[in-house]
Amino acid sequence: MYILVNEGIIPRSSFSVDIEDRGYQFGDGIYEMVKVFEGVLFEWEAHLQRLFRSARELRITISMNKEELTEQVQRLIAIEDLRDGYVYIQVTRGVASRIHHFPEGVSSVLVAYTKEGKEERKEELAGIRVITTEDIRWQRVDIKSLNLLGNVLAKQKAVEAGAQEAVFVRDGMVTECSSSNIFGIKDGVCFTHPANHLILNGITRQVVIRLLEKVSLELEESPMKLEALYGMDEVFITNTGQEVGPVIEIDGRKVGNGDIGVYSRNLSIEFQRLIDSVVPS
Ligand code: PMP
């Protein structure tokens, strides 16, 4: 098993994390997870843009430019002979004595590894149960940072309640979920939170927004009140791993009649079509 560390590809067994890596001590870093279908990186350009944007926002300098990183990640996929799975990429500010402010003369540490495996998407096919919880996270969740404790605690709460996802509510308004974005459909209009500092602008979210027209849905990027979410005809979540995940229950209440809705189903079909169109046949 090989991994990418800065500009080099090395055996995973020969790599260790320095105890003074700021990612390890402060969560001072960023990441991306990118799906690979038939050896092809899905929506790579969008993930690359978001990684470099996160880095800019935190003033972390990535040692490679976009072309070099693309080349190295593709090399890693080839070496690992990855067909279907994902690539995880992480960049931390680097290794330094433990001080809070940015240390001087430190180089960032980029690591990437691949994971083989096709997801079965059982939950997405059966419908997802969610709970709601207060959004206690900081106000820059548009940055895909390693600080995920608010998300971890929310997901754990969902799991303990027998649900699969936790929906965040901030000041009575639905923002996103612990590891996904959320959409609600009412009378042919598809609502989702605008891409500002209160949500991560998911790559899957952006793809689904492009697909709305194909299923005759209108887009309305405005936050939903929790009460409005309960009353939606259909609700679905999106993320890289799950793609379009229809929600059938929120806080124990059925969404619509409790079955997966037609729009959600059609969006899943369109999403699969898009994947099929980018992978070599
Ligand atoms: N919001 C949060 C908090 C997430 O962790 C994720 C998954 N990374 C998403 C939204 C969805 O993002 P994407 O579609 O890029 O996976």
Which descriptors would you attach to this protein?
281 residues; binds 4'-deoxy-4'-aminopyridoxal-5'-phosphate; D-amino Acid Aminotransferase, Chain A, domain 2; six-stranded antiparallel β-sheet; alpha+beta; globular; ten-stranded mixed β-sheet; 2 domains; 8 helices; D-amino Acid Aminotransferase, Chain A, domain 1
Topology order in helix (H) and strand (E) letters: EEHEEHHEEHEHEEEEHEEHEEEH
- Which CATH class of the largest domain? Alpha Beta
**Strand count:** 16
Classify the secondary structure makeup into a structural class: alpha+beta
Enzyme class: transferase
Catalytic activity: D-alanine + 2-oxoglutarate = D-glutamate + pyruvate
Subunit structure: Homodimer.
Keywords: Aminotransferase, Pyridoxal phosphate, Transferase
Structure write-up:
With 281 residues, this protein is α+β, with helices and mostly antiparallel strands. The protein has 2 domains: 2-116, D-amino Acid Aminotransferase, Chain A, domain 1, CATH 3.30.470; 122-278, Alpha-Beta Barrel (D-amino Acid Aminotransferase, Chain A, domain 2), CATH 3.20.10.10. Helix content is 30%, strand content 30%. The chain contains 8 helices and 16 strands. It has helices spanning 22-26, 44-58, 66-80, 122-126, 149-160, 203-211, 226-230, 262-278; strands at residues 2-5, 8-11, 29-37, 40-41, 85-92, 109-116, 128-134, 165-170, 173-177, 181-186, 189-192, 218-220, 224-225, 234-239, 243-250, 253-254. The strands form 2 sheets. Strands 7, 8, 9, 10, 11, 12, 13, 14, 15 and 16 form a 10-stranded mixed beta sheet that branches. It has a 6-stranded antiparallel beta sheet with strand order 2-1-6-5-3-4. α5 links the parallel β7 and β8 (165-170). The chain is globular. 38% of the residues are buried. The model has no long low-confidence stretch (mean pLDDT 97). 4'-deoxy-4'-aminopyridoxal-5'-phosphate (PMP) is lined by residues 151, 176, 179-181, 200, 202-205, 238-240. Keywords: Aminotransferase, Pyridoxal phosphate, Transferase. Its cofactor is pyridoxal 5'-phosphate. InterPro entries: Aminotrans_IV, Aminotransferase-like, BCAT-like_C, BCAT-like_N, Class-IV_PLP-Dep_Aminotrnsfr, D_amino_transT. Its EC number is 2.6.1.21. It is an enzyme of class 2 (transferase).
